[in-house]
Amino acid sequence: MPDDLFTPTIAPADYQTKRKPWRPQSLLVPAILGGPTAVTVLALLNGARLGLTRRAVLTVLGAGLAALIARIVVTVTLLPDANARPARLVGSLAGALVWLAVSATQKTRFRAYELRGGEPASLWLPGIAAILLLGFVEGALVLLVDRG
Amino acid sequence: MTAPDLALSRAAHLLEVNRADAALEELARLPADVAIGAPAFRLRAAALTDLDRWDDVVATARQGLAELGPDPELLGRLGLALRHRGEYAPAEQALLDGLAIAPESPWLLCQYADLCTAVGQTDKAEQLLARAAALAPESPAVFASRFQLAYTRGDDRATEQIAREFLGVWPEHPAALALHGLAAAQRGRMDAAHRSFGQAVAHDPADADAANAAWEARVLAHPLLLPLRPLHRWGMLRTWLVAVTVMVGLNLAGLDLLAGLAGLLWIAYCVYSWTAPALVRRLVRGRWRS
């Protein structure tokens, strides 16, 4: 019987990873502490390492931009002071929303990588760098828009 | 029954009771003409699979195929071992060669599904498993492959459901117990995980993976890690949302002092969740060794 299921579909490009990816679940920490920009940049790098489809990459990018804009709009229109604690909480929530998109698009690919015996890369240094650098840049941007 | 036949059935029995090393010794004593027969090659490849000796499985399967010509079981073993060595395209070729001879073999269908799952082709894996499940709905291989697929898809609820079905049909199967333990650990039920892994090790003491998992579950079931149960069960995001809601709620109610205290407690909890598992691991291991 002719059978579509029994035709080969595995090309070498499907499973070659040049650099170890980070565990997508761990990206929640830079998302909460750093905000949408930090988690989006890390997730895009991770997507490239996992070899994600174009659609998945665009989903993360779209979610990141939407969350950044939402954060700025909410802070400027609803909060009296962009420097105060509620403003930071809005940033964390926006980051967490981006992470939901990241988790949805990267979990399967990462678990398959684990199933092939792959180990996750350490997120400590890149995570802290993203939180400090990108978190600061984003905070400055929010302040600028708020003052301007 | 002749003496070599008896030796073959003894080896098969040893494999059934998870004593692959003893089965290999039995097979090594076979006379030369029986040792190159199809049953001997199949049993040897199966025993080496149980021992995770993938390079030897590849060599044995290839040698058997050279001696006997195409054989679905040996092709399946070859595909399985090549997958474990990370050679996915050759593994697919071996499995497809096997399926060309035996398209209705549930075990071969499961092997091919596992391979597709491992490279992230989950939709194809699902179709293959549907076919295997229609042929042999209660086969352990089908349960194990369905579990792996659901886990890879990230559907932890379905994963646990499949583990429970597997255990319902095969209450003493080591793989059923080990997978049930994995699913329970994934959902934060550490005591259940601990029990299942312990039983799995009792039924199959040679399985290093189950022993390791039993270890890890023993650590996570430790009383000192009881405060981390909500984190395991709900995941990081939900735990954080609960903490933030409490803090914001206290702030809005004007209870600034209590809100500050909750904030401090939350930070302490975060630090505890990073450091305590490592400490308990040391504690449990130290006691185990002495």
Question: Could you outline the blueprint of secondary structure elements for this entry?
Answer:
The complex is a heterodimer of chains A (148) and B (290).
Chain A: H1 28-34, H2 36-50, H3 54-78, H4 85-115, H5 124-147
Helix pairs in contact in A: 1-2, 1-4, 1-5, 2-3, 2-4, 2-5, 3-4
Chain B: H1 3-16, H2 20-28, H3 32-35, H4 38-50, H5 54-68, H6 72-84, H7 88-101, H8 106-118, H9 122-135, H10 140-153, H11 156-169, H12 174-186, H13 190-203, H14 208-220, H15 229-252, H16 256-289
Helix pairs in contact in B: 1-2, 1-4, 2-4, 4-5, 4-6, 5-6, 6-7, 6-8, 7-8, 8-9, 8-10, 9-10, 10-11, 11-12, 12-13, 12-14, 13-14, 14-16, 15-16
Total number of helices of chain B:
16
Structure class of chain A: mainly alpha
Order of helices and strands of chain A: HHHHH
Q: What would you call the shape of chain B?
A: elongated
What is the radius of gyration of chain A computed over CA atoms, rounded to a whole number of angstroms?
18 Å
Structure, described:
The complex is a heterodimer of chains A (148) and B (290). With 148 residues, chain A is an all-alpha fold. Chain A has five helices and no strands. The longest helix of chain A is centred in the C-terminal third of the chain and has 31 residues. The N and C termini of chain A lie far apart (70 Å). Chain B is mostly helical and 290 residues long. In chain B, 81% of the residues lie in helices and 0% in strands. Chain B has 16 helices and no strands. The radius of gyration of chain B is 24 Å and the shape is elongated. The N and C termini of chain B lie far apart (51 Å). Chains A and B meet through helix 1 and helix 4 of A and helix 7, helix 8, helix 9, helix 10 and helix 15 of B.
